[in-house]
Protein backbone atom coordinates (compact mmCIF):
# COMPACT_ATOMS: atom_id res chain seq x y z
CA UNK A 1 0.00 0.00 0.00
CA UNK A 2 1.19 3.49 -0.84
CA UNK A 3 2.13 5.47 2.28
CA UNK A 4 0.10 8.53 3.19
CA UNK A 5 0.37 10.03 6.66
CA UNK A 6 -2.25 12.13 8.47
CA UNK A 7 -0.69 14.44 11.09
CA UNK A 8 -3.16 15.48 13.79
CA UNK A 9 -2.22 18.62 15.72
CA UNK A 10 -0.10 19.76 12.77
CA UNK A 11 0.48 23.29 14.08
CA UNK A 12 1.60 22.19 17.56
CA UNK A 13 5.21 21.97 18.67
CA UNK A 14 5.76 18.34 17.59
CA UNK A 15 3.17 18.39 14.79
CA UNK A 16 4.82 21.31 13.01
CA UNK A 17 8.22 19.60 13.06
CA UNK A 18 6.62 16.44 11.65
CA UNK A 19 5.34 18.61 8.81
CA UNK A 20 8.90 19.90 8.28
CA UNK A 21 10.43 16.41 8.20
CA UNK A 22 7.72 15.08 5.84
CA UNK A 23 8.34 17.98 3.45
CA UNK A 24 12.13 17.49 3.60
CA UNK A 25 11.70 13.80 2.71
CA UNK A 26 9.01 14.26 0.04
CA UNK A 27 6.57 12.16 2.05
CA UNK A 28 2.91 12.23 1.14
CA UNK A 29 0.98 13.66 4.10
CA UNK A 30 -2.06 15.66 5.18
CA UNK A 31 -1.61 18.18 8.00
CA UNK A 32 -4.72 18.55 10.18
CA UNK A 33 -5.07 21.52 12.52
CA UNK A 34 -7.78 22.38 15.03
CA UNK A 35 -9.36 24.64 12.39
CA UNK A 36 -9.83 21.58 10.15
CA UNK A 37 -10.90 19.19 12.88
CA UNK A 38 -11.97 19.61 16.51
CA UNK A 39 -11.21 16.41 18.41
CA UNK A 40 -13.84 17.22 21.04
CA UNK A 41 -16.76 17.56 18.65
CA UNK A 42 -15.97 16.34 15.12
CA UNK A 43 -15.92 12.87 13.58
CA UNK A 44 -12.44 12.31 12.14
CA UNK A 45 -13.67 9.72 9.63
CA UNK A 46 -16.34 11.91 8.07
CA UNK A 47 -14.53 15.23 8.41
CA UNK A 48 -11.03 14.23 7.24
CA UNK A 49 -10.32 10.58 6.38
CA UNK A 50 -13.22 10.04 3.92
CA UNK A 51 -11.78 12.86 1.80
CA UNK A 52 -8.36 11.18 1.42
CA UNK A 53 -8.18 8.13 -0.81
CA UNK A 54 -5.68 6.03 1.17
CA UNK A 55 -4.31 6.65 4.66
CA UNK A 56 -1.57 4.31 5.91
CA UNK A 57 -0.61 6.11 9.16
CA UNK A 58 -2.09 8.61 11.62
CA UNK A 59 0.26 10.47 13.97
CA UNK A 60 -1.68 11.86 16.90
CA UNK A 61 -0.06 15.00 18.32
CA UNK A 62 -3.35 16.33 19.67
CA UNK A 63 -3.30 16.78 23.44
CA UNK A 64 -3.88 19.25 26.19
CA UNK A 65 -0.36 19.71 27.56
CA UNK A 66 -0.68 22.34 30.29
CA UNK A 67 0.13 20.20 33.34
CA UNK A 68 -1.14 22.66 35.95
CA UNK A 69 -4.14 23.60 33.79
CA UNK A 70 -5.26 19.94 33.68
CA UNK A 71 -5.75 19.93 37.48
CA UNK A 72 -8.48 22.56 37.07
CA UNK A 73 -9.92 21.14 33.85
CA UNK A 74 -9.90 17.38 34.20
CA UNK A 75 -12.85 16.99 31.79
CA UNK A 76 -10.79 18.48 28.96
CA UNK A 77 -7.74 16.39 29.94
CA UNK A 78 -9.66 13.09 29.83
CA UNK A 79 -11.72 13.96 26.75
CA UNK A 80 -8.69 14.93 24.67
CA UNK A 81 -5.86 12.81 26.11
CA UNK A 82 -7.85 9.62 26.81
CA UNK A 83 -11.31 9.39 25.15
CA UNK A 84 -10.05 10.74 21.84
CA UNK A 85 -7.16 8.22 21.88
CA UNK A 86 -9.70 5.42 22.41
CA UNK A 87 -11.87 6.61 19.48
CA UNK A 88 -8.77 6.93 17.32
CA UNK A 89 -7.69 3.36 18.12
CA UNK A 90 -11.05 2.04 16.95
CA UNK A 91 -11.09 4.18 13.84
CA UNK A 92 -7.58 3.01 12.91
CA UNK A 93 -8.63 -0.63 13.31
CA UNK A 94 -11.72 -0.13 11.11
CA UNK A 95 -9.54 1.31 8.33
CA UNK A 96 -6.40 -0.78 8.86
CA UNK A 97 -4.34 2.33 9.68
CA UNK A 98 -1.17 2.27 11.82
CA UNK A 99 -1.47 4.68 14.75
CA UNK A 100 1.42 6.64 16.25
CA UNK A 101 0.31 8.03 19.60
CA UNK A 102 2.43 10.38 21.74
CA UNK A 103 2.77 9.87 25.48
CA UNK A 104 4.85 11.23 28.32
CA UNK A 105 7.32 10.50 31.14
CA UNK A 106 4.65 11.99 33.45
CA UNK A 107 2.85 8.62 33.46
CA UNK A 108 5.56 7.68 36.04
CA UNK A 109 5.95 8.88 39.63
CA UNK A 110 9.73 9.35 39.41
CA UNK A 111 10.57 7.17 42.41
CA UNK A 112 12.35 4.40 40.49
CA UNK A 113 16.08 4.03 41.05
CA UNK A 114 17.40 3.77 37.50
CA UNK A 115 15.89 4.38 34.12
CA UNK A 116 12.22 3.75 33.33
CA UNK A 117 11.56 0.98 30.83
CA UNK A 118 8.56 0.57 28.53
CA UNK A 119 7.45 -2.38 30.68
CA UNK A 120 7.36 -0.40 33.96
CA UNK A 121 3.93 0.16 35.49
CA UNK A 122 2.72 3.78 35.30
CA UNK A 123 1.83 5.58 38.52
CA UNK A 124 0.97 9.16 37.55
CA UNK A 125 1.09 11.95 40.13
CA UNK A 126 -1.25 14.43 38.44
CA UNK A 127 -4.38 14.69 36.25
CA UNK A 128 -2.33 15.26 33.08
CA UNK A 129 -0.27 12.10 33.68
CA UNK A 130 -3.38 10.11 34.59
CA UNK A 131 -5.22 11.23 31.44
CA UNK A 132 -2.18 10.42 29.27
CA UNK A 133 -1.78 7.04 30.95
CA UNK A 134 -5.47 6.29 30.28
CA UNK A 135 -4.87 7.23 26.62
CA UNK A 136 -1.90 4.83 26.49
CA UNK A 137 -4.01 2.02 27.95
CA UNK A 138 -6.78 2.63 25.42
CA UNK A 139 -4.34 2.52 22.50
CA UNK A 140 -2.53 -0.52 23.89
CA UNK A 141 -5.77 -2.44 24.54
CA UNK A 142 -7.74 -1.52 21.43
CA UNK A 143 -5.42 -0.59 18.57
CA UNK A 144 -4.14 -3.48 16.45
CA UNK A 145 -1.25 -1.66 14.75
CA UNK A 146 0.12 1.01 17.07
CA UNK A 147 3.23 2.74 18.35
CA UNK A 148 3.15 4.74 21.56
CA UNK A 149 6.17 7.05 21.70
CA UNK A 150 6.79 8.34 25.24
CA UNK A 151 8.55 11.71 25.10
CA UNK A 152 9.72 14.25 27.66
CA UNK A 153 10.39 18.01 28.16
CA UNK A 154 9.93 19.03 24.55
CA UNK A 155 11.52 21.95 22.79
CA UNK A 156 10.80 22.91 19.22
CA UNK A 157 10.59 25.97 17.04
CA UNK A 158 6.83 26.34 17.44
CA UNK A 159 6.81 26.16 21.27
CA UNK A 160 4.00 24.15 22.88
CA UNK A 161 0.78 25.82 21.82
CA UNK A 162 -0.87 24.54 25.01
CA UNK A 163 1.79 26.19 27.17
CA UNK A 164 2.41 29.38 25.22
CA UNK A 165 6.06 28.58 24.46
CA UNK A 166 8.75 26.21 25.67
CA UNK A 167 11.35 26.20 28.46
CA UNK A 168 13.92 27.88 26.19
CA UNK A 169 11.69 30.84 25.36
CA UNK A 170 10.68 31.14 29.04
CA UNK A 171 14.34 31.22 30.16
CA UNK A 172 15.20 33.78 27.49
CA UNK A 173 12.31 36.02 28.58
CA UNK A 174 13.13 35.72 32.31
CA UNK A 175 16.85 36.17 31.61
CA UNK A 176 16.07 39.54 30.01
CA UNK A 177 13.36 40.69 32.44
CA UNK A 178 14.81 39.69 35.83
CA UNK A 179 17.95 40.15 37.90
CA UNK A 180 17.75 36.62 39.30
CA UNK A 181 16.21 33.50 37.81
CA UNK A 182 15.67 30.49 40.10
CA UNK A 183 15.67 27.06 38.47
CA UNK A 184 15.35 23.67 40.17
CA UNK A 185 18.71 21.94 40.38
CA UNK A 186 17.64 18.55 41.78
CA UNK A 187 14.81 17.59 39.41
CA UNK A 188 16.19 15.51 36.57
CA UNK A 189 14.68 15.48 33.11
CA UNK A 190 15.46 14.62 29.50
CA UNK A 191 15.13 17.68 27.29
CA UNK A 192 14.12 16.40 23.86
CA UNK A 193 13.87 18.23 20.54
CA UNK A 194 10.63 17.75 18.63
CA UNK A 195 12.70 17.62 15.42
CA UNK A 196 14.45 14.47 16.73
CA UNK A 197 11.16 12.79 17.64
CA UNK A 198 9.75 13.68 14.22
CA UNK A 199 12.83 12.12 12.56
CA UNK A 200 12.45 8.95 14.67
CA UNK A 201 8.75 8.56 13.80
CA UNK A 202 9.32 9.13 10.09
CA UNK A 203 12.24 6.65 10.19
CA UNK A 204 9.86 4.01 11.61
CA UNK A 205 7.31 4.72 8.88
CA UNK A 206 9.64 4.88 5.89
CA UNK A 207 11.47 1.72 7.00
CA UNK A 208 8.18 -0.18 7.42
CA UNK A 209 9.04 -1.12 11.01
CA UNK A 210 6.18 -3.24 12.35
CA UNK A 211 7.51 -4.12 15.81
CA UNK A 212 4.45 -2.48 17.41
CA UNK A 213 4.29 -1.33 21.01
CA UNK A 214 5.54 1.33 23.42
CA UNK A 215 8.89 3.10 22.83
CA UNK A 216 10.61 5.69 24.97
CA UNK A 217 11.71 8.40 22.54
CA UNK A 218 13.87 10.96 24.35
CA UNK A 219 17.39 12.36 24.05
CA UNK A 220 20.04 9.82 24.98
CA UNK A 221 21.16 11.69 28.13
CA UNK A 222 19.50 13.68 30.90
CA UNK A 223 20.24 16.66 33.16
CA UNK A 224 18.74 18.90 35.84
CA UNK A 225 16.51 21.82 34.80
CA UNK A 226 19.28 24.07 36.17
CA UNK A 227 21.88 22.49 33.84
CA UNK A 228 19.50 22.92 30.93
CA UNK A 229 18.86 26.57 31.86
CA UNK A 230 22.60 27.21 32.11
CA UNK A 231 23.15 25.88 28.56
CA UNK A 232 20.27 28.04 27.29
CA UNK A 233 21.68 31.15 28.97
CA UNK A 234 25.12 30.46 27.48
CA UNK A 235 23.82 29.92 23.94
CA UNK A 236 21.56 33.00 24.24
CA UNK A 237 24.41 35.21 25.43
CA UNK A 238 22.59 35.89 28.72
CA UNK A 239 24.29 36.59 32.04
CA UNK A 240 24.68 33.16 33.71
CA UNK A 241 25.30 34.73 37.14
CA UNK A 242 21.58 35.58 37.21
CA UNK A 243 20.81 31.86 37.57
CA UNK A 244 20.20 30.50 41.07
CA UNK A 245 19.66 26.92 42.17
CA UNK A 246 16.23 26.11 43.62
CA UNK A 247 15.29 22.99 45.57
CA UNK A 248 12.58 20.66 44.19
CA UNK A 249 11.23 19.88 47.66
CA UNK A 250 10.77 23.55 48.53
CA UNK A 251 8.99 24.41 45.28
CA UNK A 252 5.19 24.76 45.34
CA UNK A 253 3.81 23.25 42.15
CA UNK A 254 0.10 23.38 41.33
CA UNK A 255 0.30 19.80 40.04
CA UNK A 256 2.70 17.29 41.63
CA UNK A 257 5.56 16.27 39.36
CA UNK A 258 8.01 13.36 39.23
CA UNK A 259 11.41 14.29 40.64
CA UNK A 260 13.34 12.03 38.28
CA UNK A 261 11.48 10.18 35.53
CA UNK A 262 14.31 9.48 33.12
CA UNK A 263 13.45 6.87 30.51
CA UNK A 264 15.76 4.36 28.85
CA UNK A 265 16.12 4.56 25.06
CA UNK A 266 17.60 1.05 24.75
CA UNK A 267 14.48 -0.37 23.06
CA UNK A 268 14.24 2.49 20.54
CA UNK A 269 17.96 2.36 19.74
CA UNK A 270 17.47 -1.03 18.08
CA UNK A 271 15.88 1.01 15.27
CA UNK A 272 16.83 4.65 15.85
CA UNK A 273 19.57 6.40 17.85
CA UNK A 274 18.53 9.62 19.58
CA UNK A 275 21.21 12.34 19.99
CA UNK A 276 22.48 13.98 23.18
CA UNK A 277 20.29 16.88 24.34
CA UNK A 278 23.27 19.27 23.96
CA UNK A 279 23.55 18.41 20.25
CA UNK A 280 19.83 19.00 19.75
CA UNK A 281 19.96 22.28 21.66
CA UNK A 282 22.82 23.46 19.42
CA UNK A 283 20.74 22.55 16.37
CA UNK A 284 17.74 24.43 17.80
CA UNK A 285 19.89 27.56 18.25
CA UNK A 286 21.29 27.22 14.74
CA UNK A 287 17.72 27.26 13.37
CA UNK A 288 15.94 29.68 15.72
CA UNK A 289 17.78 32.96 15.64
N1 LIG B 1 5.39 19.72 25.63
C1 LIG B 1 6.04 18.86 26.39
O1 LIG B 1 7.02 19.21 27.07
C2 LIG B 1 5.61 17.42 26.42
C3 LIG B 1 6.24 16.55 27.33
C4 LIG B 1 5.87 15.19 27.32
C5 LIG B 1 4.91 14.73 26.44
N2 LIG B 1 4.31 15.61 25.57
C6 LIG B 1 3.31 15.07 24.63
O2 LIG B 1 3.77 15.33 23.31
C7 LIG B 1 2.66 15.56 22.43
C8 LIG B 1 2.89 16.84 21.63
O3 LIG B 1 3.08 17.93 22.54
P1 LIG B 1 3.33 19.41 22.02
O4 LIG B 1 4.30 20.06 22.95
O5 LIG B 1 3.61 19.38 20.55
O6 LIG B 1 1.88 20.03 22.28
P2 LIG B 1 1.19 21.33 21.67
O7 LIG B 1 2.16 22.20 20.97
O8 LIG B 1 0.38 21.92 22.79
O9 LIG B 1 0.23 20.71 20.55
C9 LIG B 1 -1.02 20.16 20.86
C10 LIG B 1 -1.84 20.18 19.62
O10 LIG B 1 -3.18 19.74 19.95
C11 LIG B 1 -4.08 20.56 19.23
N3 LIG B 1 -5.37 20.58 19.89
C12 LIG B 1 -5.68 20.97 21.15
N4 LIG B 1 -7.00 20.83 21.37
C13 LIG B 1 -7.54 20.35 20.21
C14 LIG B 1 -8.84 20.00 19.80
N5 LIG B 1 -9.90 20.13 20.62
N6 LIG B 1 -9.02 19.53 18.55
C15 LIG B 1 -7.97 19.41 17.69
N7 LIG B 1 -6.72 19.73 18.02
C16 LIG B 1 -6.49 20.20 19.27
C17 LIG B 1 -3.42 21.92 19.26
O11 LIG B 1 -4.00 22.76 18.29
P3 LIG B 1 -3.93 24.38 18.48
O12 LIG B 1 -2.49 24.73 18.36
O13 LIG B 1 -4.77 24.89 17.37
O14 LIG B 1 -4.50 24.65 19.84
C18 LIG B 1 -1.98 21.55 18.98
O15 LIG B 1 -1.75 21.45 17.60
C19 LIG B 1 1.41 15.55 23.32
O16 LIG B 1 0.83 14.27 23.26
C20 LIG B 1 1.96 15.77 24.72
O17 LIG B 1 1.13 15.20 25.72
C21 LIG B 1 4.64 16.93 25.54
3D architecture notes:
The chain is of the alpha/beta class and 289 residues long. The chain has a single domain (5-163, 191-220, 262-275), classed as Rossmann fold, CATH 3.40.50. 37% of the residues lie in helices and 16% in strands. It has helices at residues 13-24, 44-47, 67-72, 74-94, 127-142, 167-177, 194-206, 225-236, 277-287; strands spanning 5-8, 29-32, 57-60, 98-104, 146-151, 154-155, 181-184, 188-189, 192-193, 213-216, 223-224, 243-246. The strands form four sheets. Strands 2-1-3-4-5-10 form a six-stranded parallel β-sheet, sandwiched between helices. A two-stranded parallel ribbon has the order 6-9. The protein has a two-stranded parallel sheet with strand order 7-12. Strand 4 (98-104), helix 5 (127-142) and strand 5 form a beta-alpha-beta unit. Helix 1 crosses helix 7 (194-206), helix 6 (167-177) crosses helix 8 (225-236) and helix 8 (225-236) runs parallel beside helix 9 (277-287). The longest helix is centred in the first third of the chain and has 21 residues, at 74-94. The radius of gyration is 19 Å and the shape is globular. It starts with a strand and ends with a helix. NADP nicotinamide-adenine-dinucleotide phosphate binds next to helix 1 and strand 4.
Number of distinct helices: 9
Q: Low-confidence runs (pLDDT<50, min 5 residues)?
A: none
**β-strand number:** 12
Mean pLDDT: 96
Total count of domains? 1
Shape: globular
Bound molecules: NADP nicotinamide-adenine-dinucleotide phosphate
| CATH homologous superfamily caption | NAD(P)-binding Rossmann-like Domain
The CATH topology name reads Rossmann fold
Roughly how many Å apart are the termini? 41 Å
Global structural class? alpha/beta
Order of helices and strands: EHEHEHHEHEEHEEEHEEHEH
Our Rg estimate from Cα atoms comes to 19 Å
The CATH architecture designation is: 3-Layer(aba) Sandwich
Helix percentage = 25-40%
- Biggest β-sheet: count, sense, barrel? 6 strands, parallel
Record the strand order, biggest sheet: 2-1-3-4-5-10
Amino acid sequence: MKQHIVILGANGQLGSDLVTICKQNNISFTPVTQDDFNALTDNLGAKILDKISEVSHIINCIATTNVDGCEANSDLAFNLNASFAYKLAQLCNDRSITLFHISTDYVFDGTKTGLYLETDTPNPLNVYGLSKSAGDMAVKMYALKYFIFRVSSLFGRAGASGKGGNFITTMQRLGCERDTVSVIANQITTPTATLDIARAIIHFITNNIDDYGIYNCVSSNSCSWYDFAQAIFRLSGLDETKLHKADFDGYSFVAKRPKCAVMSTAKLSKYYQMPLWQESLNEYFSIVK
